[in-house]
Amino acid sequence: MHQKSFKQLRMAEAIKEILSLTLVQDVNDELLTQITITGVQLSPDLKKAKIFYTYFKGENQIIAQKLQKAKGFLRTCLAKKIKTKFIPDLEFVWDQYLDTIIYNQEL
Question: Model pTM?
């Protein structure tokens, strides 16, 4: 298994913070402002980022579509705030961790 470098970890944390703030402060969509970014996983070459998110009111399909439409805007915001050679391509992934916990508690 590939061990994450310090640069990967540092950049992942920066992306998480910037996207979280951007969604709250700069996005004009009520649904997107209520998303919680739970984690970021970068590829070893730093060109792809999986952004894990949750949303507590359901409607995962609608959120996924809206995030896909906002991807270009979010990458532009990252480019303005992160000094790096490449801004990673963003892939948004529903974080199922909380769903699993809720399901296990209901059992």
Answer: 0.84
